[in-house]
Design goal:
This protein has eleven helices and 19 strands. It has 400 residues and is an alpha/beta fold. Bound molecules: FE2/S2 (inorganic) cluster.
C-alpha cells in the first residue's frame, strides 16, 4: 500500500473543508430575514448591454453618394443605445404589406454616438433584393422602427488580429469600416486601418467626404479608392487584386477584413490565396443567404427550379405554404405572412434555429453555422437552408 505524506498546509485545508457545513449553517442563521431581490443587478446590466430589441425613431435620412441613403436612428427620449464593437450590425424589422421581414445593416456611426442614443445605418439601392429599395422609397423621418441589439463578429480583436488591418470593401460594404474609422478617430479602437474601397465610378462612392475627413483627422486611417468602370487621376483602376493589396499593405503582418457582395468574395478568395496569409488573419462579413445555391458544391442539379410543400408548425398551429428550391426556407415562411425569428440571415448567428421535423434540405457549406448537436438532432437555420423535398418545420418566436 502506498502512503501520501500530507504537509501542514494540506492538513489545514482539510480541516477548513471539514468545517464548511458548520460555517455555512452559522452564516445562514446569522443573516437577516429580508427577502431576496426579485431582480438581480447582473441580469439588469446584461439586458442593458445586450438587449434583444431596441425601439428607435428615424431622426434623419441623408442622401449618400448616388444611390445610398444614411438613416439616423435616435431613441425617443434621448436615452443611450447599447454600445457596440465597431464593425457590428443591427437587424432591422421591416413590415411590408402583410409580412414582416428583417435585414441586417452594419452600424456606420461612431460608437461614441450610441451614448447619446444615436445609431446610423446606410441602405444602398440593391437591384438583387427588394427590401433596401423598399426602405429607401417608403421610410420617413419620425417613423418608429424596431431593431435588434448589436450583433456580429467582424470587429477588431487584439488577441487574434494583426495590429495592421487591410479592409477590402465593395459598394455598401464600406459601412462596417466607416464605423471602425470613426472608432479609431474617437479613441474606441487602437489599430492601423487601410481601407481599399472598390466602387464603379468616382461619383458613386459612398461616404467619400466623410472618409476624407476621417483620414485628415487621424493618421491611423487610410483610404485607397479603386474604380472598376472609370479611369481617373488619384484613383486606382480595375479590381482589388493580390498585387494591389501587397502594394498598400507594405511590410509586416496584417489582417484582412472583407465586406461586400458575394461576387466580390468569389473573386477575392482567389486573390487572397496568393498572399499566403495565416487563416486567422482573413475574416469576412456575411451579407444574407447564398443567392445561387445550385452553384455550390454538393447541390443536386435536379432540384433547381422545383417547388415543394412546406408545413410550418408554430406554437401548435399549422400553416401550409409553397417553397421554392432556389430560395431559403425563411423567405417562404415570411412570404406566407408567418413571423419567424431572424437576424443575420446568413446562417451564422443561430437566432432562426428551428426543428426540421421531416424532409431534406441543402445547406451550403459556406453558410452552415450549425452546432454539432443541432446536426445530430435535426435542427437547421431556415435562413440558410434550401428545400430539396416537401418539408415540415417547427419554428418559434417572432422576427426580432
Ligand atoms: S438568422 Fe442568423 S442563423 Fe438564421
Amino acid at each position: 500500500m502506498a502512503y501520501v505524506k500530507i504537509g501542514l498546509i494540506g492538513k489545514l485545508d482539510m480541516l477548513k473543508f471539514k468545517n464548511i457545513t458548520k460555517v455555512r449553517e452559522n452564516e445562514i442563521q446569522a443573516s437577516p430575514a429580508t427577502p431576496l431581490p426579485k431582480v438581480l443587478t447582473t441580469n439588469e446590466k446584461a439586458k442593458k448591454h445586450h438587449p434583444a430589441k431596441q425601439d428607435v425613431v428615424i431622426a434623419d435620412i441623408r442622401q449618400n453618394g448616388a444611390d445610398a441613403k444614411t438613416i439616423v436612428f435616435k431613441t425617443p427620449d434621448g436615452s443611450r443605445l447599447a454600445l457596440y464593437r465597431a464593425g457590428q450590425y443591427v437587424s432591422v424589422s421591416v413590415p411590408i404589406g402583410d409580412t414582416v421581414t428583417t435585414r441586417s445593416y452594419s452600424l456606420c456611426s461612431s460608437p461614441e454616438l450610441a451614448k447619446k442614443g444615436e445609431y446610423h445605418i446606410t441602405v444602398k439601392r440593391d437591384d438583387a433584393g427588394f427590401v433596401s429599395p423598399y426602405i429607401q422609397d417608403n421610410w420617413k423621418v419620425g417613423q418608429a422602427v424596431t431593431i435588434s441589439g448589436p450583433q456580429g463578429h467582424l470587429y477588431y480583436e487584439p488577441l487574434r488580429d494583426a495590429k495592421k488591418v487591410i479592409a477590402l470593401a465593395g459598394g455598401s460594404g464600406i459601412t462596417p469600416f466607416m464605423g471602425m474609422a470613426y472608432a479609431i478617430r474617437d479613441g474606441h479602437e487602437d489599430f492601423d486601418l487601410t481601407i481599399i474601397f472598390g466602387s464603379r465610378t468616382a461619383e458613386g462612392i459612398v461616404y467619400k467626404k466623410e472618409l476624407d475627413e476621417v483620414c485628415a483627422a487621424c493618421d491611423k486611417v487610410h483610404v485607397v479608392h479603386v474604380l472598376s468602370d472609370e479611369e481617373k487621376e488619384g484613383y486606382e483602376h480595375g479590381f482589388i487584386t493580390a498585387e494591389l493589396i501587397k502594394k498598400y499593405a507594405g511590410e509586416g503582418e496584417y489582417s484582412i477584413f472583407m465586406c461586400g457582395p458575394q461576387a466580390m468574395y468569389n473573386f477575392l478568395d482567389g486573390e487572397i490565396a496568393k498572399l499566403g496569409l495565416r487563416r486567422k488573419f482573413v475574416r469576412r462579413e456575411m451579407f444574407g443567404a447564398i443567392k445561387d445555391p445550385w452553384n455550390q458544391p454538393g447541390y443536386p442539379a435536379e432540384a433547381k427550379g422545383k417547388k415543394f410543400k412546406l408545413k410550418v408548425i408554430k406554437y401548435g398551429e399549422e400553416f401550409e405554404v409553397e417553397a421554392l428550391a432556389d430560395e431559403p426556407l425563411l423567405v417562404a415562411i415570411e412570404r406566407a405572412g408567418i413571423s419567424a425569428p431572424s437576424r443575420c440571415r446568413s446562417g451564422e448567428c443561430g437566432w432562426c434555429r428551428s426543428k426540421l421535423v421531416s424532409g431534406k434540405v441543402f445547406i451550403p457549406e459556406k453558410t452552415d453555422g450549425r452546432r454539432a448537436a443541432d446536426v445530430d438532432y435535426n435542427y437547421v437555420h431556415p435562413c440558410a437552408s434550401f428545400p430539396l423535398s416537401d418539408i415540415v418545420i417547427e419554428v418559434s418566436g417572432s422576427n426580432i
